[in-house]
Amino acid sequence: MAHFPAPPLSADDLLVLLAVARTGRYTSAGQQLGLNHTTIARRISALEAQLGGRVVSRADGGWELTALGVRAIAAAEEVERALGGLGTRDDARIEGLIRLSATDGFSGFVAAPAMAAVQERHPDVRLEIVTGTRQASQQRAGADLEVVVGRPQVRRARAIHLADYALGLYASREYLRRHPSPTGPEDLAGKPLVYFIESMLHVDSLDDARRVVPGMTDAVGSTNVYVHVDATRGGAGFGLLPAFLADQHDDLVRLLPDSVEARLPYWLVARPEALNQPAVMVFLEALQERLEAVRPQLLGEKPGP
Protein backbone atom coordinates (compact mmCIF):
# COMPACT_ATOMS: atom_id res chain seq x y z
CA MET A 1 0.00 0.00 0.00
CA ALA A 2 1.32 3.42 -0.96
CA HIS A 3 2.06 5.86 1.86
CA PHE A 4 1.41 9.45 1.02
CA PRO A 5 3.17 12.26 2.91
CA ALA A 6 1.04 13.94 5.54
CA PRO A 7 -0.33 17.33 4.50
CA PRO A 8 1.41 20.32 6.09
CA LEU A 9 -0.01 21.70 9.29
CA SER A 10 -2.68 24.33 8.82
CA ALA A 11 -1.46 27.81 9.78
CA ASP A 12 -5.05 28.73 10.63
CA ASP A 13 -5.34 25.80 13.04
CA LEU A 14 -2.08 26.79 14.72
CA LEU A 15 -3.33 30.35 15.19
CA VAL A 16 -6.54 28.98 16.70
CA LEU A 17 -4.45 26.98 19.19
CA LEU A 18 -2.49 30.15 19.99
CA ALA A 19 -5.71 32.02 20.78
CA VAL A 20 -6.99 29.16 22.98
CA ALA A 21 -3.66 29.03 24.85
CA ARG A 22 -3.74 32.77 25.49
CA THR A 23 -7.36 33.01 26.58
CA GLY A 24 -7.86 29.58 28.15
CA ARG A 25 -11.35 29.27 26.64
CA TYR A 26 -12.84 28.30 23.29
CA THR A 27 -15.48 31.01 23.54
CA SER A 28 -12.94 33.75 24.28
CA ALA A 29 -10.66 32.53 21.50
CA GLY A 30 -13.64 32.57 19.17
CA GLN A 31 -14.50 36.14 20.09
CA GLN A 32 -10.92 37.15 19.44
CA LEU A 33 -10.82 35.45 16.04
CA GLY A 34 -14.40 36.06 14.93
CA LEU A 35 -15.26 32.33 15.01
CA ASN A 36 -17.92 30.40 16.88
CA HIS A 37 -17.25 27.82 19.60
CA THR A 38 -17.96 24.88 17.28
CA THR A 39 -15.43 26.04 14.71
CA ILE A 40 -12.77 26.51 17.38
CA ALA A 41 -13.37 22.97 18.67
CA ARG A 42 -13.27 21.57 15.13
CA ARG A 43 -9.99 23.34 14.35
CA ILE A 44 -8.39 22.05 17.55
CA SER A 45 -9.59 18.50 16.78
CA ALA A 46 -8.16 18.76 13.26
CA LEU A 47 -4.80 19.89 14.63
CA GLU A 48 -4.77 17.06 17.17
CA ALA A 49 -5.53 14.53 14.43
CA GLN A 50 -2.66 15.93 12.36
CA LEU A 51 -0.21 15.86 15.30
CA GLY A 52 -1.40 12.52 16.66
CA GLY A 53 -2.18 13.62 20.20
CA ARG A 54 -3.94 16.08 22.47
CA VAL A 55 -2.75 19.69 22.39
CA VAL A 56 -5.04 20.98 25.16
CA SER A 57 -6.57 19.40 28.24
CA ARG A 58 -9.43 20.47 30.45
CA ALA A 59 -8.37 22.48 33.52
CA ASP A 60 -10.19 24.42 36.21
CA GLY A 61 -12.04 27.19 34.42
CA GLY A 62 -10.75 26.48 30.91
CA TRP A 63 -8.12 24.74 28.81
CA GLU A 64 -4.41 24.21 29.39
CA LEU A 65 -1.67 23.19 26.96
CA THR A 66 -0.33 19.65 27.00
CA ALA A 67 3.35 18.94 26.38
CA LEU A 68 2.52 18.43 22.69
CA GLY A 69 0.54 21.68 22.71
CA VAL A 70 3.53 23.58 24.11
CA ARG A 71 5.64 22.34 21.18
CA ALA A 72 2.91 23.27 18.72
CA ILE A 73 2.72 26.78 20.20
CA ALA A 74 6.31 27.41 19.13
CA ALA A 75 5.27 26.78 15.52
CA ALA A 76 2.14 28.90 16.00
CA GLU A 77 4.21 31.83 17.22
CA GLU A 78 6.46 31.52 14.16
CA VAL A 79 3.35 31.76 11.97
CA GLU A 80 2.16 34.81 13.92
CA ARG A 81 5.53 36.52 13.58
CA ALA A 82 5.69 35.75 9.86
CA LEU A 83 2.23 37.20 9.28
CA GLY A 84 3.08 40.24 11.38
CA GLY A 85 6.16 40.83 9.27
CA LEU A 86 4.05 41.26 6.16
CA GLY A 87 2.78 44.60 7.42
CA THR A 88 4.77 47.83 7.55
CA ARG A 89 5.83 49.47 10.78
CA ASP A 90 3.27 52.19 10.19
CA ASP A 91 0.28 49.88 9.91
CA ALA A 92 1.39 47.44 12.65
CA ARG A 93 -1.18 47.48 15.42
CA ILE A 94 -1.10 45.92 18.86
CA GLU A 95 -4.44 44.62 20.02
CA GLY A 96 -5.89 41.96 22.25
CA LEU A 97 -7.49 41.13 25.59
CA ILE A 98 -5.39 40.65 28.74
CA ARG A 99 -6.84 38.89 31.76
CA LEU A 100 -5.24 39.78 35.09
CA SER A 101 -5.90 38.28 38.50
CA ALA A 102 -4.53 40.51 41.27
CA THR A 103 -5.11 41.84 44.75
CA ASP A 104 -7.50 44.77 45.23
CA GLY A 105 -4.82 47.26 46.21
CA PHE A 106 -2.44 46.36 43.39
CA SER A 107 -5.27 46.41 40.86
CA GLY A 108 -6.42 49.89 41.79
CA PHE A 109 -3.11 51.58 42.56
CA VAL A 110 -0.79 49.97 40.02
CA ALA A 111 -2.54 47.95 37.30
CA ALA A 112 -5.37 50.34 36.41
CA PRO A 113 -3.12 53.42 35.91
CA ALA A 114 -0.65 51.26 33.95
CA MET A 115 -3.45 50.14 31.67
CA ALA A 116 -4.59 53.72 31.14
CA ALA A 117 -1.07 54.51 29.91
CA VAL A 118 -1.18 51.51 27.54
CA GLN A 119 -4.48 52.60 26.03
CA GLU A 120 -3.12 56.05 25.29
CA ARG A 121 -0.68 54.38 22.90
CA HIS A 122 -2.56 51.20 21.98
CA PRO A 123 -6.33 51.81 22.18
CA ASP A 124 -7.13 48.29 20.90
CA VAL A 125 -5.57 46.61 23.94
CA ARG A 126 -8.14 45.68 26.59
CA LEU A 127 -7.76 44.56 30.20
CA GLU A 128 -10.03 42.49 32.45
CA ILE A 129 -9.14 42.39 36.16
CA VAL A 130 -10.39 39.79 38.61
CA THR A 131 -9.55 40.88 42.16
CA GLY A 132 -8.83 38.65 45.11
CA THR A 133 -6.22 37.92 47.77
CA ARG A 134 -5.11 34.32 47.39
CA GLN A 135 -2.19 32.08 46.55
CA ALA A 136 -1.10 31.64 42.95
CA SER A 137 -3.28 29.17 41.08
CA GLN A 138 -1.75 25.95 39.84
CA GLN A 139 -4.17 26.05 36.89
CA ARG A 140 -4.25 29.53 35.32
CA ALA A 141 -6.25 28.77 32.18
CA GLY A 142 -8.58 31.70 32.90
CA ALA A 143 -5.89 34.38 33.35
CA ASP A 144 -2.83 35.50 31.42
CA LEU A 145 -1.20 37.11 34.46
CA GLU A 146 -1.55 36.83 38.24
CA VAL A 147 -0.16 39.14 40.89
CA VAL A 148 0.09 37.61 44.34
CA VAL A 149 1.57 38.54 47.71
CA GLY A 150 4.48 36.33 48.70
CA ARG A 151 6.77 34.15 46.61
CA PRO A 152 4.62 31.64 44.72
CA GLN A 153 5.29 27.94 44.25
CA VAL A 154 4.10 27.22 40.72
CA ARG A 155 4.63 24.72 37.91
CA ARG A 156 4.66 25.43 34.19
CA ALA A 157 4.70 29.18 34.80
CA ARG A 158 7.11 32.08 35.15
CA ALA A 159 7.31 33.84 38.52
CA ILE A 160 8.80 37.35 38.60
CA HIS A 161 9.34 39.58 41.64
CA LEU A 162 7.77 42.97 40.92
CA ALA A 163 8.17 45.13 44.03
CA ASP A 164 7.81 45.25 47.80
CA TYR A 165 5.28 47.24 49.78
CA ALA A 166 4.90 48.22 53.43
CA LEU A 167 2.07 47.50 55.85
CA GLY A 168 1.79 49.93 58.74
CA LEU A 169 -0.50 50.62 61.69
CA TYR A 170 -2.97 53.47 61.23
CA ALA A 171 -5.85 55.11 63.08
CA SER A 172 -8.10 58.03 62.28
CA ARG A 173 -7.46 61.40 63.91
CA GLU A 174 -10.97 61.29 65.38
CA TYR A 175 -10.36 57.83 66.85
CA LEU A 176 -7.14 59.05 68.47
CA ARG A 177 -9.00 61.95 70.07
CA ARG A 178 -11.16 59.41 71.89
CA HIS A 179 -8.54 56.74 72.59
CA PRO A 180 -4.92 56.94 73.75
CA SER A 181 -2.20 56.43 71.17
CA PRO A 182 -0.01 53.35 71.77
CA THR A 183 3.53 54.15 72.83
CA GLY A 184 4.85 50.71 71.85
CA PRO A 185 3.72 47.35 70.46
CA GLU A 186 2.99 46.15 73.99
CA ASP A 187 0.15 48.70 74.21
CA LEU A 188 -1.69 47.03 71.35
CA ALA A 189 -2.78 43.93 73.31
CA GLY A 190 -6.57 43.74 73.35
CA LYS A 191 -7.01 46.74 71.04
CA PRO A 192 -9.39 46.49 68.03
CA LEU A 193 -7.75 45.48 64.74
CA VAL A 194 -9.01 46.10 61.21
CA TYR A 195 -7.48 43.52 58.86
CA PHE A 196 -8.20 40.42 56.81
CA ILE A 197 -10.57 37.69 58.01
CA GLU A 198 -8.15 35.24 59.56
CA SER A 199 -10.16 32.10 58.78
CA MET A 200 -10.49 33.06 55.11
CA LEU A 201 -6.92 34.18 54.51
CA HIS A 202 -4.66 31.63 52.83
CA VAL A 203 -1.66 33.83 52.07
CA ASP A 204 1.23 33.07 54.41
CA SER A 205 2.89 36.48 54.04
CA LEU A 206 -0.27 38.31 55.09
CA ASP A 207 -0.87 35.87 57.95
CA ASP A 208 2.69 36.42 59.16
CA ALA A 209 2.18 40.19 59.13
CA ARG A 210 -0.12 39.85 62.14
CA ARG A 211 2.97 39.21 64.24
CA VAL A 212 3.82 42.92 64.17
CA VAL A 213 0.57 43.66 66.06
CA PRO A 214 0.55 41.01 68.82
CA GLY A 215 -2.51 40.32 70.92
CA MET A 216 -4.95 42.57 69.07
CA THR A 217 -8.63 41.68 68.83
CA ASP A 218 -10.29 41.45 65.43
CA ALA A 219 -12.84 44.26 65.17
CA VAL A 220 -13.58 44.52 61.44
CA GLY A 221 -12.38 41.90 58.99
CA SER A 222 -12.76 41.91 55.23
CA THR A 223 -11.32 40.22 52.16
CA ASN A 224 -11.08 43.67 50.52
CA VAL A 225 -8.26 46.04 51.49
CA TYR A 226 -10.28 49.13 50.55
CA VAL A 227 -12.79 48.12 53.24
CA HIS A 228 -9.88 48.03 55.70
CA VAL A 229 -9.01 51.62 54.80
CA ASP A 230 -12.58 52.90 55.03
CA ALA A 231 -13.29 51.07 58.31
CA THR A 232 -10.15 52.57 59.84
CA ARG A 233 -11.10 56.04 58.61
CA GLY A 234 -14.54 55.49 60.12
CA GLY A 235 -13.07 54.82 63.58
CA ALA A 236 -13.51 51.04 63.79
CA GLY A 237 -10.09 50.59 65.37
CA PHE A 238 -6.44 50.35 64.37
CA GLY A 239 -5.92 49.29 60.76
CA LEU A 240 -2.97 47.28 59.50
CA LEU A 241 -2.94 48.93 56.09
CA PRO A 242 -0.81 49.22 52.95
CA ALA A 243 1.05 52.51 53.27
CA PHE A 244 0.45 53.36 49.62
CA LEU A 245 -3.31 53.41 50.25
CA ALA A 246 -3.45 54.81 53.79
CA ASP A 247 -1.01 57.66 53.20
CA GLN A 248 -3.37 59.13 50.61
CA HIS A 249 -5.80 60.11 53.41
CA ASP A 250 -5.02 63.11 55.63
CA ASP A 251 -7.43 61.86 58.29
CA LEU A 252 -5.30 58.77 58.93
CA VAL A 253 -2.23 58.83 61.18
CA ARG A 254 0.53 56.25 61.01
CA LEU A 255 1.52 54.93 64.44
CA LEU A 256 4.75 53.33 65.66
CA PRO A 257 6.41 53.37 62.23
CA ASP A 258 9.78 52.32 63.65
CA SER A 259 8.47 49.24 65.43
CA VAL A 260 5.29 48.17 63.61
CA GLU A 261 5.90 47.48 59.92
CA ALA A 262 5.79 44.48 57.62
CA ARG A 263 7.31 44.50 54.16
CA LEU A 264 5.68 42.15 51.69
CA PRO A 265 6.56 41.25 48.08
CA TYR A 266 4.36 41.40 45.00
CA TRP A 267 5.10 38.58 42.55
CA LEU A 268 3.88 38.20 38.98
CA VAL A 269 2.94 34.73 37.72
CA ALA A 270 2.48 34.22 33.99
CA ARG A 271 1.94 31.41 31.56
CA PRO A 272 5.10 31.32 29.38
CA GLU A 273 3.12 31.66 26.16
CA ALA A 274 1.35 34.76 27.51
CA LEU A 275 4.70 36.56 27.79
CA ASN A 276 5.04 36.35 24.00
CA GLN A 277 1.81 38.26 23.37
CA PRO A 278 2.50 41.80 22.13
CA ALA A 279 -0.42 43.15 24.19
CA VAL A 280 0.91 41.51 27.36
CA MET A 281 4.41 42.77 26.67
CA VAL A 282 3.33 46.42 26.36
CA PHE A 283 1.20 46.06 29.50
CA LEU A 284 4.13 44.64 31.48
CA GLU A 285 6.32 47.53 30.32
CA ALA A 286 3.71 50.00 31.54
CA LEU A 287 3.40 48.06 34.80
CA GLN A 288 7.13 48.35 35.43
CA GLU A 289 7.03 52.08 34.64
CA ARG A 290 4.17 52.57 37.11
CA LEU A 291 5.91 50.55 39.83
CA GLU A 292 9.09 52.57 39.41
CA ALA A 293 7.15 55.83 39.65
CA VAL A 294 5.32 54.84 42.86
CA ARG A 295 8.07 52.85 44.60
CA PRO A 296 8.46 55.41 47.45
CA GLN A 297 4.71 55.32 48.12
CA LEU A 298 4.68 51.51 48.11
CA LEU A 299 7.33 51.55 50.83
CA GLY A 300 5.66 54.33 52.83
CA GLU A 301 8.53 56.73 52.31
CA LYS A 302 7.86 60.42 52.72
CA PRO A 303 8.83 62.64 49.79
CA GLY A 304 12.03 64.62 50.22
CA PRO A 305 12.18 68.39 50.59
Keywords:
disordered N terminus, D-Maltodextrin-Binding Protein, domain 2, 305 residues, alpha/beta, 10 helices
Describe the protein's architecture and organization.
By secondary structure, the protein is an alpha/beta fold. It folds into 2 domains: 11-84, Arc Repressor Mutant, subunit A (Orthogonal Bundle), CATH 1.10.10.10; 95-305, D-Maltodextrin-Binding Protein, domain 2. 38% of the residues lie in helices and 23% in strands. The chain is built from 10 helices and 11 strands. It has helices at residues 11-23, 26-33, 37-51, 67-84, 104-121, 173-178, 204-208, 225-233, 243-246, 278-298, and strands spanning 56-59, 62-65, 96-102, 125-131, 145-149, 158-172, 192-195, 217-221, 238-242, 252-255, 261-270. The strands form 2 sheets. Strands 3, 4, 5, 6, 7, 8, 9, 10 and 11 form a 9-stranded mixed beta sheet that branches. Helix 2 packs across helix 3 (37-51). The chain is elongated and about 75 Å long. The N and C termini lie far apart (86 Å). The model is unreliable at 1-7 and 87-91 (pLDDT under 50).
SSE topology:
Elements: H1 11-23, H2 26-33, H3 37-51, E1 56-59, E2 62-65, H4 67-84, E3 96-102, H5 104-121, E4 125-131, E5 145-149, E6 158-172, H6 173-178, E7 192-195, H7 204-208, E8 217-221, H8 225-233, E9 238-242, H9 243-246, E10 252-255, E11 261-270, H10 278-298
Parallel strand pairs: 3-4, 3-5, 7-8, 7-9
Antiparallel strand pairs: 1-2, 5-11, 6-9, 6-10, 6-11
